[in-house]
Amino acid sequence: RMWCVVFLNKPETIRKIRVKEGYDFLYNLMPSENPLLCAFDGIYDPQNLGNIVRSAASLEVDGIILPRDRSCSINETVIRIAKGGINHVNIVRVTNIPRYIEEMKKKNIFCFGMDENGTRSVWNVDLTGSVCLVFGREDGLRRLTRERCDEVIKIPTSQSFPSLNVATSVAIALYEARRQRMAHNKSHSA
């Protein structure tokens, strides 16, 4: 386990955030519990990351996977924007996102790349199993990450302006996953 120490505005306030090692986290996941994960192929804006953490905590994501490099740190801005969500979701740091996608696939976690040029709509895929939603930077997924994903899907948007902010895309996709999982659980418990 790693700890990320964040010094907040007040000199007497120090916050420790637990950040998990990628392979330890993956090894301890139980596929039978159908984990919902999201991975990021680079995220630099701490406000976006804070909003992502907040949405992930609210929508019961099991882990947020971030690259060790190509990503902003867990800092005061992330914690403030997350509004306490940082305490309710696992933050996982990995060296290489495409390689980690391969490891997730070995654990039977289906990896959907999220990109405006995806083939199918997020509304038309099954998100009830063990799933990782993989998001890119503002310019989309990098080539190798895209190639490692099982399928690249999209959020249907206006053809004249298809671009969404990454934090907004995450919230929409995670909400759809949560909606499907709740409907699936309700139909199986009846």
Please supply descriptive tags for the structure shown above.
nine-stranded mixed sheet, 9 strands, alpha/beta, 190 residues, globular
Q: Helix fraction?
A: 25-40%
The end-to-end distance, rounded to whole angstroms, is 40 Å
Unreliable residue runs: 1-14
Shape estimate? globular
Average pLDDT = 87
Computed structural class: alpha/beta
Largest sheet: 9 strands, mixed
| Tally of separate helices | 6
Strands of the biggest beta sheet: in what spatial order? Answer: 1-2-5-4-3-8-6-9-7
> What is the radius of gyration?
16 Å
Approximately how much beta-strand content do the residues carry?
A: 15-25%
Please tally the β strands and state the result: 9
The assembly state of the depicted protein chains is single chain
User: What is the element string, with H for helices and E for strands?
Assistant: EEHEHEHEHEEEHEH
